[in-house]
Request: fold
Amino acid sequence: MFDMTLFILLVLTGMSYFSHNMTVTIALLVLIVVRMTPLNALFPWIEKQGVTVGIIILTIGVIAPIASGTLPGSTLLGSFLHWKSLLAIAIGIFVAWVGGRGVSLMSSQPTIVGGLLIGTLIGVSLFRGVPVGPLIAAGLVSLFIGKM
Reply:
């Protein structure tokens, strides 16, 4: 029996692999394994908590240089004295806000996720982009379509 969902996951895996998007490739392979094994009972939890767990892991990675001492407190305090750093702070605030809108939009309209994934793959493969920011992309979509 033909499994359209598995076929789509495999196509997306191939596209992400050939576009050198290893993050998406690994994520898709994990989901394929979960789908094809008894682990598929985890899907409700993954769907409900996956974004939260991912954000926690991403936040740990971002804060790690502060915790390890690689980025000293004096450097952080110096960020408030230079216009480029102040601009980075303002943009960081804006991007975090937009990402929050993206989480809400992806939760309320999951059909958008496929478009975000395809757009990310095209951006990486054709425009030498970096596969970051699906939440930001969703947030920007929410600004265009007026949804939160």
